[in-house]
Write a structure and sequence with these properties.
The complex is a heterodimer of chains A (about 190) and B (about 210).
Chain A lengths: L13 H8 L4 H11 L3 H17 L17 H13 L1 H6 L13 E2 L2 E6 L2 E6 L7 E7 L5 E7 L3 E5 L8 E9 L5 E4 L3 E4 L3
Chain B lengths: L7 H11 L12 H24 L2 H20 L9 H18 L1 H13 L18 H13 L2 H12 L4 H8 L3 H19 L15
Helix pairs in contact in B: 2-3, 2-4, 3-4, 7-9, 8-9
Classes of the chains: A alpha+beta (about 190), B mainly alpha (about 210).
The complex binds zinc ion (ZN).
The site of zinc ion has 6 residues of chain A, from α3.
Chain lengths: ~190, ~210
Amino acid sequence: MTEVIDCPYVENDDLLRQYLAGTVADSDAEEFERHLFACDRCREEVEQGLAVRAALQRPAHGSLLRWRFPSVTFAAAAAAVILVAIGLWQMRSAEPTVPQPVRGSERGITASARLANGAFTTIWQPNPSARQYVVQLFTADGTPLQSVHTSENKATVPLGSIPRGKTIYWKIQALDENGTVIGSSELQRITISR
Amino acid sequence: MPRHSTPKALVHPLIKRENPEILSATADRSPDALAAELTERFWLRLRLFAARRLRDRNQADDVAQETIRRVLEALRENRVENLDALPAFVFQTARNICLHHGRSAHRETGALRRLKSSQPIMSSEEDDPLTGLIDRSRRAQVRDALEQMRPDDRDLLRLLYVEGLETAEVASRLGIDAGTLRVRKHRALLRLAAIVGGGNVSGRAGTEGEA
Ligand SMILES: [Zn+2]
């Protein structure tokens, strides 16, 4: 089925590709999306361009463990945390030469934590294959508070201005030399006493 | 959305005449068939739309599903007054859901649930929420197909879609004019689609996510 509509992006297809690359201003992106919902020609090219892009794209080396706080929305910030916290093995798995961990083969990490002197302190059972660990703290809605990377099996994270009485969630992940998540603790909660 | 109570008898011929490809619709189609048609037509669009805003593939899927559900409901209740404007209606519905999604407590518990389940949400490219919609097997399939293509076609597609260069820049690098470039791009995409098969290189509705 082909929707015959006047398509301004036949001649000017730069915008379509900028849209795929995420380099177009929000207002232009939205205008394009409004068009995309009605235009089958653009849908087809977007579909193909996206697949080519995904197929040939390299993982974003060097920034794998960086927290991101996109300014877009609160939801975006939460999503970015999840992306960074959980998507690590998948990042690597986009690279065909990297061994891909089987989901479910991640080993659990037993960890405990306490709050003292305005800091969150945690210690966990080391994973022999781990090169480093990431300690992540979140609010109850998934917003990132802090993250710390360490090669030790313990860490102290200052809580800064987190109000008393707040519940925070925390999680430890073990990473191998490729940055792949090879072990993870349960997501646990702890409440800052009043 | 104002509620519109046109009798079904008046709506169906309209649907059949103006949107034969999608809405031949509630009378002679089962709700499942209608849902399938809507999904076929809008699934990728909805996921792109939501992924760009929410930067989360699972949430994008949630938004796409919820949008389809609401649009179906609106169609069944004859609340879509002008079926020519169905794409705009779907767009607006998705937009409302995304706006709400950003605020809702449901989303917040969803975020936590996902943290707990350790499911990978998005693919590698943290700055690239859209390509995160394409799963690994599809990437591999398209990569294989690209390798079977002529190097000049492959390079052209890479310059355009991966490097994201502007038409003028690519044309100047290749020493051709913009019109020729467009023709070559079109042909390269056709060849790619032919190798991948079925003319659809990014997966059909519902098969794009990780298993
Ligand atoms: Zn178009």
